[in-house]
């Protein structure tokens, strides 16, 4: 008993050692406390449960309950009974935490900051792993299997971490696992008996035996090999750096400069493509006085191409030191705005474009590069990437445009330089028709823009997807408008294109959403998943006004512009004026739109709302198939039972109508039809009993005669009179069928069989009875044996062929020659 | 000279019910003397019906001789008792030709074996010469003296007793002779209750004296005829062969059972089945008989002897590993443990 306790403690320690790998993905160490608490609670409760001899599943349940109490205590919602007993609100709280954790996992890049949701995830996850390890290693005594949950625990950070993980946690985890195996094995040897040396001396439990030395050597060598080989083989160390390097060489035309040290965003916005969301990478942090930051701009793509937009090459950029254009200049005095300050700190971002909010008033660019400012686009760029690890400050104005003001904006004048340079468009008949249809009858520029913006609504079957649909029209924009799925680049490019088609100056802006707020502070983390693209439209006197046609539900940190609700949102008033007041930002949302950053990663599944029903259908279908598969053994068992119970009827069918005549008995050995049928009926009834016993996990030794088995059943299981008689009757019938000249009368065997089955089933625990019904062992074993028999037969046949082929192959030439000459 | 019955003169087989009644009567009669040993008594009767011979081996005073005598008394047939001593001569067993002066011819005086039941007490005290004189009689059921062969009667059964403890001045039975005994049984001590009853009942006088026959030789012959007709299915014959073969392959046994052992095993099984009122043999019968029928014929290896494993335990263990004929545990293989 104490030895099992030692194994349980070692199992806990092994789990704890495996959690060291979490250190590679967390910034701080709060997870250590939570993992330790979870493991400690699980181990203690399991040991106590074993001390009072609860069955294995009970131990697992007890540990689960204890874990629940623990997380209720450590992550309270404030509505618990006695602080540890969970209430309904606790579970709602847990659900929220889990949802939050799911988002965080998607959004945050390693090393992740301390977040309650992630700590909750760690506490629950580590606790579950600890339970699995304990149940497998200590409860079921299969410590080798306990390696699976430990491996799962280990593989989570390894999968999440973009870099290769340090080898030290691997060594610790592996050592913990080996320790567990060793402790269990010592326990096994101890149970087997006392150990002796060769000369008969008694060996202490912990004294290694000569055999153990070999085992230790094997274990150590395996561990060293597992650590050293990946370190030595260069091809295996595919960190994120290699991936980014591959990305940059792949895109080639990207004007966003990159180095090996960081990543940047590609300012080309295309109408075709597929986006692969890799592991998020922390690009930069933002600290701002703005409670609700909007989009951060990096580059402006204002030159139209066949496939979308790209930044114009000839720029009249001036050195930043000459100052910026005052954003408010030329704007109506009635326009409300707020001036905010922001400080940004580059992490993995290394770009020659500086992420800034729109309408900056001052910019203190990071040193180390010659930053230039383009008054036309408001973009600050350097000749080479210079943002990694540096920080920059900016003051900016956040304008609150009103729909009614924009409606009243003056008409566009063709002489305006902004109009001149931003209305170039490639005319495509389909697009021209479409735009004409949309803007027909719209009196002013704003309404026309809104008509085009609202066109990208889910009502028109637009949906978000990381993959555009391939088209055949030869034109990217026509393909997109036909396929109607894509990500921000396609939406922004298409809207800008269509707006220009309507004669309104517009351009695509590339940048980032505000990302994830860290804690409750004013700091925000922007990762590679927050890259985004949207549209700016020129309104005389108001300047460039941003619009975002991308479905906001799919963009994390998507901004809600008061003057133009997102087309994917239900719009309460078409004027948009009433919503102008609320310019809240979306906090929820699934994975962020990753803009043009393409990292290697997993293809994101199609998460469009339209496909929801199909997904459910697939799930339901899968469930039905699974249930069907699971039901096959039970169905097979039912079939067998039915066939066996019909054997009795066949006897009656064979026999002449019972008119009292004794059945004809042929002493010469051959069975007549009735005798044979009677034997079969008895065999069937007995087989049914044996199968029932196998299902219910009774012992069925083959060296036991029916009579002996019946006696043992009646004696050991203390069957009540009815089933006991039934079992005896079946045994007698089987005995006669096997060994006597004539079988016993088959009548009533079915009832006896049923009675025996009921009686036997009542003697076993309910769980076992349930298992016997769902997954009958008799059927499963028969299948298993059938498979192994088939395999053996096939192997034997193949061997036979091989030998035959051998015989066909002529003997070596030398021998033949010798034969001939001899 | 007593009437001789050949094997063909057994008489008509008996219905199962009558057989059972007769057997119960004999068993009941013997049990008046031997308290609390029904299995032993039945086995002794089964050996008689199987036309075999019985070796009773146990410590002194547990009722070996009494069992033999009780069985003899219960059946109205000729009974002879030989007290084996070192100076017993073969002619005392088989008989001797004596010169008759009146007839001027040698006349055969039948020895002790010319009886239906021969009780050989303390058989291991006789010299090997005398022991082997019994051999021919037991196996071939005939006696050859001075070139003349005399057939023995049916039923013919030798019930020998021997004492395994006091080995001083004894001649342990050689293997060949042990093999001729169908079964060896150990009486074993009676249970405390049986012993108490015995004190009450036997305290006054010898209950053997009050025992009267409940059957006769003719009935026994009919019983034997009935037993011979008990059905043994083909798989069971195979089972018997398997059992005997296993003893020859066991690493614990230096000498396995002989083919005669298999024959006698099956024959006794028939008798046991008939005694239970069955007209067919079951593996249970064979399993129950493996120890009494086989254990005294096999010789354990020195290693098994060192490990203090008795032949009883070894053969009992062997038979437990042989699958029962006709067993179909689901898929017909292995030991199914839940």
From TrEMBL, chain A:
Keywords, comma-separated and alphabetical: Membrane, Transmembrane, Transmembrane helix
UniProt key word Transmembrane helix: yes
Gene3D superfamilies with a match to the protein in the record: 3.10.620.30
UniProt biased composition (Low complexity): 571-583
Residues covered by the Transglutaminase-like domain: 480-551
InterPro entries in the record: Bact_TGase-like, Papain-like_cys_pep_sf, TgpA_N, Transglutaminase-like
Coiled-coil intervals, chain numbering: none
Pfam family, one: Transglut_core
Residue ranges, compositional bias (Gly residues): 596-608
Transmembrane segments: 33-49, 56-75, 120-137, 144-161, 167-186, 218-236, 616-635
Positions of the UniProt region annotated as Disordered: 309-334, 556-608, 640-667
Protein name: Transglutaminase
């Amino acid at each position: 008993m104490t030895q099992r306790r030692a194994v349980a403690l070692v199992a806990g320690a092994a789990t704890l050692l495996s959690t060291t790998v979490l250190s590679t993905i967390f910034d701080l160490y709060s997870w250590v406390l939570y993992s330790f608490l979870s493991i400690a609670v699980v181990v203690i409760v399991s040991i106590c449960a074993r001390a009072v001899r609860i069955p294995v599943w009970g131990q697992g349940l007890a540990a689960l309950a204890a874990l629940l109490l623990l997380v209720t205590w450590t992550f309270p919602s404030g509505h618990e009974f006695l602080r540890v007993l969970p209430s309904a609100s606790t579970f709602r709280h847990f659900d929220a935490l889990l949802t939050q954790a799911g988002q965080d996992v998607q959004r945050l890049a390693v090393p992740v900051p301390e977040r309650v949701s992630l700590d909750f995830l760690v506490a629950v996850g580590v606790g579950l792993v600890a339970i699995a390890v304990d149940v497998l290693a200590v409860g079921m005594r299969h410590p080798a299997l306990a390696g699976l949950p430990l491996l799962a625990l280990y593989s989570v950070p390894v999968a999440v971490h973009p870099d290769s993980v340090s080898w030290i946690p691997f060594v610790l985890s592996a050592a913990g696992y080996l320790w567990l195996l060793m402790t269990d094995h010592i326990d096994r040897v101890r149970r087997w008996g006392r150990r002796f040396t060769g000369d008969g001396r008694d060996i202490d439990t912990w004294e290694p035996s000569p055999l153990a030395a070999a085992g230790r050597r094997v274990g150590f060598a395996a561990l060293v090999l597992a650590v050293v080989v990946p370190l030595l083989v260069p091809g295996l160390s595919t960190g994120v750096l290699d991936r980014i390097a591959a990305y940059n060489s792949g895109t080639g035309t990207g004007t966003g400069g990159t180095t090996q040290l960081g990543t940047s965003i590609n300012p080309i916005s295309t109408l075709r493509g597929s986006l692969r969301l890799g592991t998020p990478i922390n690009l930069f942090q933002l600290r701002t006085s703005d409670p609700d930051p909007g989009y951060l701009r990096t580059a402006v793509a204002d030159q139209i191409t066949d496939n979308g937009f790209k930044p114009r090459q000839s720029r009249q950029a001036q050195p930043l030191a000459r100052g910026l254009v005052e954003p408010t200049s030329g704007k109506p005095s009635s326009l409300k705005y707020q001036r905010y300050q922001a400080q940004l700190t580059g992490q993995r971002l290394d770009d020659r474009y500086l992420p800034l909010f729109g309408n900056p008033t001052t910019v203190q660019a990071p040193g180390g590069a010659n930053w230039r400012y383009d008054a036309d686009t408001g973009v600050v760029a350097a000749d080479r990437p210079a943002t990694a690890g540096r920080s920059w400050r900016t003051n900016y104005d956040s304008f609150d445009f009103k729909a009614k003001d924009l409606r009243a904006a003056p008409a566009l004048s063709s002489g305006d330089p902004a109009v001149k340079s931003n209305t170039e468009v490639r005319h495509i008949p389909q697009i021209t028709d479409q735009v004409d249809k949309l803007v027909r009858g719209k009196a002013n520029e704003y309404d026309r823009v809104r008509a085009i913006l609202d066109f990208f609504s889910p009502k028109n079957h637009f949906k978000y997807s990381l993959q555009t649909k391939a088209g055949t029209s030869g034109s990217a924009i026509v393909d997109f408008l036909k396929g109607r799925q894509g990500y921000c680049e396609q939406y922004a490019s298409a809207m800008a294109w269509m707006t220009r088609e309507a004669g309104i100056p517009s351009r695509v802006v590339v940048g980032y959403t505000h990302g994830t707020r860290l804690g409750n502070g004013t700091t925000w983390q922007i990762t590679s998943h927050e890259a985004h693209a949207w549209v700016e439209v020129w309104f005389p006197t108001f300047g460039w006004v941003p619009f975002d046609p991308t479905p906001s539900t799919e963009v994390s940190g998507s901004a809600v512009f008061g003057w133009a609700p997102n087309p994917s949102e239900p719009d309460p008033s078409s004027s948009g004026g009433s919503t102008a007041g609320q310019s809240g930002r979306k906090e929820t949302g699934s994975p962020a739109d990753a803009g043009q950053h393409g990292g290697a990663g997993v293809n994101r599944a199609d998460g469009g709302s339209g496909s929801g029903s199909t997904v459910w259908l697939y799930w339901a279908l899968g469930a039905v198939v699974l249930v069907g598969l699971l039901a096959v053994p039970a169905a097979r068992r039912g079939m067998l039972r039915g066939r066996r119970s019909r054997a009795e009827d066949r006897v009656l069918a064979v026999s002449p109508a019972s008119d009292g005549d004794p059945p004809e008995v042929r002493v010469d050995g051959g069975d007549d039809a009735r005798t044979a049928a009677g034997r079969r009926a008895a065999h069937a009834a007995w087989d049914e009993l044996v199968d029932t016993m196998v299902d219910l996990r009774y012992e069925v030794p083959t060296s036991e005669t029916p009579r002996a088995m019946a006696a043992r059943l009646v004696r050991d299981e203390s069957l009540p009179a009815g089933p006991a008689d039934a079992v005896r009757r079946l045994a007698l019938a089987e005995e006669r069928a096997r060994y006597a000249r004539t079988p016993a009368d088959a009548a009533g065997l079915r009832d006896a069989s049923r009675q025996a089955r009921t009686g036997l089933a009542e003697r076993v625990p309910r769980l076992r009875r349930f298992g016997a019904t769902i997954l009958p062992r008799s059927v499963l074993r028969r299948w298993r044996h059938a498979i192994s028999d088939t395999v053996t037969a096939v192997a034997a046949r193949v061997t036979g062929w091989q030998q035959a082929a051998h015989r066909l192959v002529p003997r070596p030439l030398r021998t033949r020659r010798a034969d001939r000459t001899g | 000279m007593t009437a001789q019955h050949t094997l063909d003169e057994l008489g008509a087989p008996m219905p199962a019910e009558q057989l059972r009644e007769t057997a119960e009567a004999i068993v009941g009669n013997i049990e008046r003397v031997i308290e609390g040993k029904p299995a032993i008594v039945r086995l002794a009767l089964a050996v008689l019906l199987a036309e075999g011979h019985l070796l009773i081996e146990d410590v002194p005073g547990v009722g070996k001789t009494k069992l033999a005598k009780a069985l003899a008394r219960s059946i109205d047939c000729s009974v002879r008792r030989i007290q084996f001593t070192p100076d017993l001569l073969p002619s005392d067993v088989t008989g001797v030709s004596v010169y008759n002066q009146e007839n001027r011819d040698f006349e055969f005086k039948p020895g002790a074996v010319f009886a239906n039941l021969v009780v050989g007490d303390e058989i291991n005290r006789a010299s090997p010469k005398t022991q082997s004189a019994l051999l021919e009689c037991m196996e071939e059921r005939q006696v050859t003296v001075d070139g003349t062969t005399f057939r023995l009667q049916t039923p013919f059964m030798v019930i020998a007793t021997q004492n395994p403890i006091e080995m001083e001045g004894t001649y342990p039975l050689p293997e060949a002779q042990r093999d001729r005994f169908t079964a060896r049984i150990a009486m074993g001590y009676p249970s405390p209750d049986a012993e108490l009853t015995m004190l009450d009942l036997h305290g006054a006088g010898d209950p053997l004296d009050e025992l009267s026959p409940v059957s006769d030789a003719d009935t026994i012959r009919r019983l034997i005829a009935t037993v011979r007709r008990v059905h043994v299915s083909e798989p069971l014959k195979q089972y018997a062969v398997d059992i005997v073969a296993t003893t020859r392959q066991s690493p614990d046994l230096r000498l396995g059972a002989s083919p005669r052992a298999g024959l006698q095993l099956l024959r006794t099984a028939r008798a046991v089945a008939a005694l239970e009122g069955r007209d067919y043999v079951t593996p249970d019968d064979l399993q129950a008989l493996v120890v009494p029928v086989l254990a005294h014929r096999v010789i354990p290896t020195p290693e098994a002897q060192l490990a203090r494993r008795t032949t009883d335990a070894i053969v009992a263990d062997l038979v437990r590993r042989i699958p029962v004929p006709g067993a179909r545990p689901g898929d017909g293989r292995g030991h199914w443990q839940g």
